[in-house]
Amino acid sequence: MSVPKWALVPFRPRVLGVSIACALSGAGYHASAQEVEFNIDVIDIKDRKNIDLGQFSSGAYIMPGDYTMLVRINRQALPEQSVVFYPSEQNTKESVVCLGPTLVDQIGLKPDISKKLTWWHQGQCLLLDSLPGAVARAELGTSSLMVSVPQAYLEYAADTWDPPSRWEEGIPGVFVDYYMNGQSQRQEHGGGASYNLSGNGTVGGNMGAWRLRADWQARLEHRSNGQATGNSWDWSRYYAYRAIPSLGAQFSLGENFLYSDIFDSFRFTGVSLVTDDSMLPPNLRGYAPEVAGVARTNAKVVISQQGRVLYETQVASGPFRIQDINDAVSGQLDVRVEEQDGGVQTFTVETASVPYLTRPGSVRYKVSSGRPSDFSHSTEGPMFITGEASWGVSNGWSLYGGGVEGGDYKALAVGVGRDLMTFGALSFDVTQSRARLPQTEQNTLSGNSYRLRYSKNFDAYDSQVTFAGYRFSEKDYMSMSDYLDARNFGTRNENSKELYNVSFRQNFSDSGLSTYLNYDHQTYWDTKASDRYTFTLSKSFNVGQFRAVSLSLTAYRNKYNGSNDDGMYLSLSMPLGGGSSSVSYSGSFDRDANSHQVGYYDRLENGDSYQLNGGKNSDGATASAFYTHDGTLARVNANTSYQEGRYSSVGMSLQGGATATAKGAAMHRSNMIGGTRVLVDTDGVGDIPISGYGKAIRTNLFGKAVVTDVNSYHRNQLSIDVNKLPENADVGRSVTQATLTEGAIGYRRFEVVAGEKAMVVIKLVDGSAAPFGATVKNDKDQDVGIVSDEGSVYLSGINPGGEMSVHWNGRAQCALQIPEQISEVDMAELVLACARLPANDSPKKAPG
């Protein structure tokens, strides 16, 4: 782009800032109004009479009115909101900020401090004198209100956690989230072809604090060898819930599962009020379940509970570990690993929580009532009520207990938890059940169940017992789900006797060695025992020029119904060239077959990754590939496998959704189905890169994007990646934060100026120039330039046909129109005429 001749005179793009700085250096101050008088003799301009520095002349005065500002409490950003300034009664050249009740609530004052506050302007504005040491200061240049409050007045807050007063319920909206998986397989030697499609997801709507949800799951299977096509579609669950921050709990109604730390889970239709640990600071939250296993080939892992799919994903061959299951899940999980070679692994995982401890003086509780229901939405069984609570008696002791009563079934539990400090945490409880079953010989069955749990982090040894537990149940002990099975079907399903489970991790930092052990042992009164062992040993080391070489060995045994499924998986990975690529070897060994394969892994510049494998097993040569793409619209996994003489297969999965609100709509990727999200608005400017969680996404044609998988009750940071902005876009503030309740749809807007940038000259209709220091605003009221000498201005956001206005003396004085068509030559020598505005077009002033 060529530079116009008038741009070569003393004015430069940064001259205005230098000139004002020089003027300030000679300024004098009047203490009463902090008014600045500029020494304009130091400013290098021709027309010294045509200057407007009113916006810089007072450090304290802000014109009374209503402003949209970013509020910062002790430098902690709150959402943009309306802030009103009223004239000062003591000094007409000053204005006073009004901190309204809504804004004061977000400060997060302690209850005893809030009771002592005093107000002015008919109780609508906080009198800062009632908070000694508090200061409020506005910065119009950054559209920010800085509020400083002594920390002693504030509720507890952590680096990534805000007190409940700052939580947002989000905006109304609807969404559809989905996970879709498709696989096609062709068998060799006339075996025919088959394909299957499966999916699950959530349809939801938000209204204020309420979250309305409906879960669905579907499956379609087809085989070409004469077998009939099978398909199913189920709305597996209808429910609604909302957070009640004052109680630290969540209220839900509809179809639900009993989430209990004491009693076994079962499905019911009714209501629940449950203390929500996710509302606590991160270091005080509970334990989330983990599912680990080994996939022999590219596989699909489905995790369900009582027939409802909770989690579904595709994994590459080798060990896998799933750690992002909702921490509200409790009870027994059913895990199904569907291999591409047609094999299926199934096992169960007990997701019992860590020892039941409660902070001193606090009470945690769970109350539910309703009727048991089945997968077809029919209620079955008697009306029931259940409740449990835990009380932190002192610094180290907790008492807990609860009960269930419904029809002819009753259960009562009592327990104690102890923080052993250096030696970890321990809890012990006893549950007694009593059930009347007319079809049994005893008529009434009564028994006890005893449970012991332990957890410990050994920081000095860099090791952790994530969970260790033991449970013994007498033969006539029955859980509520056992009672319902016996009542409805006349039989008990797997009468549990003993259960052991241990999860242990040990790291040896000096040698780069780490170990992981998981053991589950379950015995029954009327069937054979089942065992599951998983042991992983891994080491990182250097070999010559190769750094961070990784060696891993995983061994497992699944014992069920008297038969053993034993196996071992060995892997060696070596990075290449210090980059993201690596080569690997893996070997899989079990009692039926052994396999060996070499692989190549790489992560591309756009964040995509792929893995290529080739090898041999007892049946012949094998080959497979796995590709992952985290797109703005969906997360995509694609894979293919080949086994010589047996089969070839391809598969693909899509995970994403669509969210719509009155503020806008967008399609998006999603990991956590039905989770909390934020709609980001970039003022209608598309292709703006947004960084939140995971790989950056870009706004759509309408300037909207949805960031999903944000943490509930957790301070989330969203930002614009300024290094990847389009050349014709500018952004002022590029970072924002949000703390949202569970399931909320948050909303954040970034001011983005889109358009070309150029040096232009602004002339009034009479041929004179706009004053030095006048500001130029676009039709969105965004500052896009400051006038320099003789009307010169470096203008951004130039769009053909757009409108702008020039402001001085506190109001818009003239309007200018950008030509409908502008060539590069025109852009280099652009002179814009500014038409005068009548005085009544000045901005409105707030009452006061």
Automatic annotation (TrEMBL):
This is Outer membrane usher protein.
